[in-house]
Amino acid sequence: MSEHGAGAGSDPAPALVRLAVLSDDHDAAAVSRMLAAYLLETEREKGASVAGASALPERYRHEVEQPARAFAAAEVWIAQADGAIAGMAVLTAPEQGRCEIKRLWTEPWARGTGVGRRLVEHCVDRARGRRDTAVELTVWRWREGAIRLYERAGFAAVESWDDRAGLVCLRHVLRDR
């Protein structure tokens, strides 16, 4: 489930979530492909005309071309469903007790099956297990399905920490500092 197509969905077979091994060619290629799809769709939603991953802004091309380097300080989680990679999410390392979920993506064929929900739940559980104080994220205001997904997972809108127009900042408080 992408940030833009999140729905209630049902889980015929719960997705298995595992840490991506970015030194493995298969995982690295899948993560690069999903990052490109996520970033291209985001740019299109913002009104940019991008023909392919090579047309993405440099800050995004780096993620697509070198995910192991781009996310060296983070954890990249992959969801598998029916034996195939169905989605991903990036969970950053905590800073002052807070971490962030980024780049939540579900492959189009797996949307509505609970993959996005499972990734979000896994990231929140992981942060709780690390004793982080909160999980944060940003989402474009037009991604209403994603916002509903995050709210159902315990996230609430907070004052924006990002000055980009159209972004909604959400936080899930896990424990007091």
Structure description:
- With 177 residues, this protein is an alpha+beta fold.
- It has a domain at 16-133: Aminopeptidase (3-Layer(aba) Sandwich), CATH 3.40.630.
- The protein has five helices and seven strands.
- A seven-stranded mixed sheet has the order 1-2-3-4-5-7-6, with helices on both faces.
- The N and C termini lie far apart (32 Å).
Can you give keywords for this protein?
alpha+beta; 7 strands; 177 residues; 7-stranded mixed sheet
Write the H/E string, N to C: EHHHEEEHEHEE
Q: What is the fold-level CATH name, i.e. the topology of the domain at 16-133? A: Aminopeptidase
Oligomer: single chain
Unreliable runs, pLDDT <50, ≥5 residues? 1-11
Distance between the termini: 32 Å
InterPro entries: Acyl_CoA_acyltransferase (IPR016181), GNAT_dom (IPR000182), NAT_camello-type (IPR050769)
Keywords: Transferase
Domain N-acetyltransferase: 17-175
GO molecular function: N-acetyltransferase activity
Quick overview:
With 177 residues, this protein is of the alpha+beta class.
What are the SSEs and their pairings?
Blueprint: E1 16-19, H1 25-45, H2 58-65, H3 67-70, E2 74-81, E3 84-92, E4 98-106, H4 115-129, E5 134-140, H5 144-152, E6 156-157, E7 167-173
Parallel strand pairs: 4-5
Antiparallel strand pairs: 1-2, 2-3, 3-4, 5-7, 6-7
